[in-house]
Every structure is written in C-alpha cells, then in structure tokens.
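[Q] Does anyone have a clean structure-token version of this?
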Amino acid sequence: MAPRTYIETTIPNFYYNHRPEPEMVACCNWTREWWDTLREKYSLVASLAVVDELRRGTHPYQQEKLGLVKSLPLLPVDQEVERIVEAYIERRMMPNDPGGDALHLALASYHKCDILLTWNCRHLANYTKMNQIRVINTMMGLHVPAILTPFELLERRDDDERR
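[A] Here you go.
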C-alpha cells in the first residue's frame, strides 16, 4: 500500500519557487523531481488549511500552486483536530497560530498519515521538534507521522536503487 502522505503548503510553494537564492533553487528542483517522478508511489492528501494558505494574498504562480493540490483528497478538520491543535500550542510545541503548522501536524497525526511532507524545517521537519512531537503525540495516543522533505524521499529512492 502506498504511504499516505500529507502535502503541506510549502510543497506547492517550492514547486513554483521564483526566488533566485541557490538554496531556494535546490529545494525547488528537489520538489519538482519528487513530484514529477515519485508522487505516484504515494497516496497524497492535503487539507483546506493548505488551500486557504495558498489562496491568501497574491503571489507568483498562485493558480498553479492551487492546481497542484486541487485534485487531492482534503482531510477534514473536526473538533478533535482542533483540540489537538490547542494542545500543541499550549505546550509551546508549535507557533501560536491555530491555522498554521499546528493544524498541519494535527491533521497528519489524527488522520494517521505515514508522512507529512514539508520544507518547513523550523517548526516541523527538524530533529529537535521530532522528539517533542513523538513525546506529545504518544502522550495523547496519536499516530506519529514521519516528517520529511522531498529531498529525503529522493534519497530513500536512491538508497533503494543501490540495493
């Protein structure tokens, strides 16, 4: 069975990156390579939170970014997900924004996604946060998704091909 993978807002944002800094270009290239060559191996989902973030304001390639997620199933936000968001924020594990990172993590955890795919390495895809997430989710009886970047999934593909 294909790993259920929650596509967080940074994925379409980096797919259509327009910033010239080398690290931004690299993330864009890795995102495009993963999306264009490997996404079929995953069962992709998103949420209305992703759609709302992509609709907010005006920015380059806004419609194209929305187009990447328009056919993905959207995970529902219910009272239990909102309770989880509050717990993350109260424990200062995530920024105090109930519609942001805490919501993405709560959705991926509550809906038992195997992977939360993101380029948010400050609040989600980093070692220090992962330990906190593991402890808090375990205390709350929640699933702990792997929080990865497209680069990490490309590296796994490369490792698998070498075997």
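[Q] Thanks! Anything notable?
[A] The longest strand covers residues 43-47.
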